Automatic annotation (TrEMBL):
A GO cellular component annotation in the UniProt record: membrane
Occurrences of domain STAS (ranges): 437-537
Keywords per UniProt: Membrane, Transmembrane, Transmembrane helix
Protein name: SulP family inorganic anion transporter
Upper classification of the organism: Bacteria, Pseudomonadati, Pseudomonadota, Alphaproteobacteria, Hyphomicrobiales
InterPro entries reported for this sequence: SLC26A/SulP_dom, SLC26A/SulP_fam, STAS_dom, STAS_dom_sf
Topological relation to the membrane, as annotated: Multi-pass membrane protein
Membrane-crossing residue ranges in chain numbering: 26-47, 54-75, 81-111, 123-145, 165-192, 204-228, 248-273, 285-310, 330-359, 380-411, 439-459
Keyword Transmembrane helix: yes
Keyword flag Cell membrane: no
Main subcellular location: membrane
Single biological process term from Gene Ontology: transmembrane transport
CDD domains assigned to the protein according to its UniProt record, in alphabetical order: STAS_SulP_like_sulfate_transporter
Originating species: Rhizobium terricola
Length: 542
């Protein structure tokens, strides 16, 4: 099996897996499971589905991501980044449409991994990732306001933020002080424990305390039990969703969005793990694993699976050494569900909303956001456009437009990086005492379509004004077909004017590109150095 498609689990087994590593992985897996338990239910509820579907996603998807993935430390499960997309798909197409879209996204991810497209995700500009992550965080927080305050809405809560805010404002008189107090208690405990006892599972402790307070004080607020009737104590049997061509076509855009976001989120998470551990993940096998995990999750009634940055970082900090910790995290969640399912009925939805409020705050990379605003006008534009489109328009639209702007910014910067000038040692000086009609020009940097017009204008001005024209390409780091075509046009113009053209320092790849565009002898003379061109010109005149 190619190393590109070998799961890290195989590598770990090949290295030799000791009892000591098993103990470390078991402790890390338990730690992550404690964090994932309330978070998985909270994300599912915010996504417009029942809390048990979040647990199915973490158990099935999380196990498969770790078993088959390309990272030693990746933890898979439901992610906050998907809340907006999942909620929208479920509202429009129902659970059947959501499950079908998740399975289709899994297929797309597997195809992307098989085609080795994982290597290209790294080309998503940093301002785009920071902008869409911050935008998602704002949307997640906005979606939790009604639960945080215990509002009673007169109509179904709209998805778009601009439509949502007037509905929430109209419902403010129905604020439930008990729900708001429980939410504040949850947020306060999480922040306090993070400061005083950072190694403790603050989210689980806070939700447990909030649940106990709700039950003991007999507070009149919504809980998992009153809203959803609790959660089951076991996994359902796998079931293939009912598929029709019409439904498949209808959910295709959602499936593509799931796959795109899943690829970005999971590989970013793997990169974070690499930075914390010094290891390197295998991006393509990671995409294949994410695809299989999404299909597996959907078969058990779960929602979208991706690598989760917070839980992956928790796994690393807790001492996880291999994918075994991620598989054990899934098994611990299954055990928790089997034992403590009846207790989940007492969890107040305001407490889970408090958990998501903390999650949304943590998602905003505040130092990075501020640094990008200050760094350059171009980066700030890409960041803000992505952020505003995600918040006020659409997540997919924000990513696509942000990426397009980032690409244009890159093209502009690269276009300005190419240099075309007379050779430093030959500023309009003849090569010998009898030849005053020779000019030497040097190209440097990346010569591609973004710089073609600028460089072409310079070359055209000088190509037919001398008897001998030497073009030094030794400083070129890149040349694309547009650039090669510009040089070919310059040479044709020079030859029509009777100018002898020399190209110096062209490497194998560069020469092959030029020859593809019919830059060949006798129209041009390829030489190794400018000095060789000097000797040949002198010899021709002798």
């Amino acid at each position: 099996m190619s190393l590109d498609f070998t799961p890290k689990t195989v590598s770990v087994v090949t290295e030799g897996y000791s009892v000591a590593r098993l103990r470390a992985d078991a402790l890390a897996g338990l730690t992550v499971a404690i964090v994932a338990l309330p978070l998985s239910m909270a994300i599912a509820i915010a996504s417009g589905v029942t809390p048990d579907r979040g647990l199915y996603t973490a158990i099935i998807g999380g196990f498969l991501v770790s078993l088959l993935g390309g990272s030693r430390h990746q933890i898979g499960g439901p992610a906050g980044a998907f809340i907006v997309l999942v909620a929208s798909t479920a509202a429009i197409h129902g659970i059947e449409g959501l499950i079908l879209a998740t399975m289709m996204a899994g297929g797309f991810l597997m195809l992307a991994g098989a085609l080795k497209l994982g290597d290209y995700v790294k080309f998503i500009p940093y301002p785009v990732t920071v902008g869409f992550t911050a935008g998602i965080a704002v949307i997640i927080f906005a979606s939790q306001i009604s639960e945080l305050l215990g509002l009673t809405l007169s109509e179904k809560e709209p998805g778009p933020l601009i439509e949502k805010l007037p509905v929430l404002a109209a419902a403010l008189p129905t604020l439930n002080p008990s729900a708001a107090a429980i939410a504040a208690l949850t947020v306060g405990l999480i922040l306090l424990l993070r400061k005083l006892r950072p190694t403790w599972p603050g989210m689980l402790i806070a939700v447990t305390v909030a649940s106990a307070a709700t039950a003991l004080l007999d507070l009149d607020i919504a809980t998992i039990g009153t809203r959803f009737g609790g959660i089951p104590r076991s996994l359902p049997l796998p079931q293939v969703p009912h598929v029709t061509p019409e439904l498949a076509v209808a959910v295709l855009p959602d499936a593509i969005a799931f796959a795109l976001l899943g690829a970005i989120e999971s590989l970013l998470s793997a990169v974070v793990a690499d930075g914390m551990t010094g290891r390197r993940h295998r991006s393509n096998v990671e995409l294949i694993a994410q695809g299989i995990a999404n299909i597996g999750s959907a078969l058990f009634g779960g929602i979208c699976v991706t690598g989760t940055i917070a839980r992956t970082a928790t796994n690393v900090r807790a001492g996880g050494t291999s994918p075994v910790s991620g598989m054990l995290h899934a098994l611990f969640l299954l055990l928790f569900m089997a034992i403590a399912a009846p207790l989940a009925s007492y969890i107040p939805l305001a407490a889970l909303a408090g958990v998501l409020a903390i999650v949304s705050w943590n998602m905003i990379e505040r130092p990075a956001f501020a640094a990008l605003i200050r760094s350059s006008r171009g980066d700030a534009v890409v960041l803000l456009v992505t952020f505003l489109l995600v918040v006020f328009r659409d997540l997919t639209e924000g990513i696509i437009v942000g990426f397009a702007l980032g690409a244009l910014l890159f093209i502009d910067r690269m276009g300005k990086s190419v240099t075309v000038a007379q050779h430093d040692d030959e500023p309009e000086r003849p090569l010998d005492n009898t030849d005053a009609d020779t000019v030497v020009y040097r190209l440097g940097g990346a010569f591609f379509f973004g710089a073609a017009a600028t460089v072409g204008a310079v070359l055209d001005r000088i190509a037919d004004r001398y008897h001998h024209f030497v073009l030094d390409c030794s400083g070129l780091s890149l040349m694309d077909s547009t650039a090669a075509n510009v040089i070919a046009g310059t040479i044709r113009k020079a030859r029509r004017a009777g100018v002898t053209v020399y190209i110096a320092g062209a490497g194998v790849e560069l020469r092959r590109m030029l020859e593809t565009h019919e830059v060949n002898a006798p129209d041009v003379n390829f030489v190794s150095t400018i000095e060789e061109a000097r000797r040949r010109i002198a010899a021709a005149r002798a």
